[in-house]
Here is the input.
Amino acid sequence: MTVHATFRKPAPAFCVAFGLRLRTLRTALSKTQGEFASDLGIAVKTVKNFEGGHRDPPATFVALVCIKFTVDPAWLLLGDAARPMFQSTPREGA
Here is the structure.
């Protein structure tokens, strides 16, 4: 009798770090995964996969999050601690 073990490939460090920052953002907005997914027009499972570091986020998703919630892309993608999570909104006429 042969036993086959199935091992899940470890998530890349970027995906895990991005997922933690995405969760930090969502909780800072006081949103559940369902509310966050609904605001972005995506499935809850997708949010869970991103937050868990199981999926690499496409650029379109990153752009959508940054635009929708005025998030600094450098903070979301790179975890740049020198930059704030949220961008200040542009002033009128600026």
About this structure: The CA atoms of residues 71 and 86 lie 4 Å apart. The chain has five helices and no strands. The radius of gyration is 16 Å.
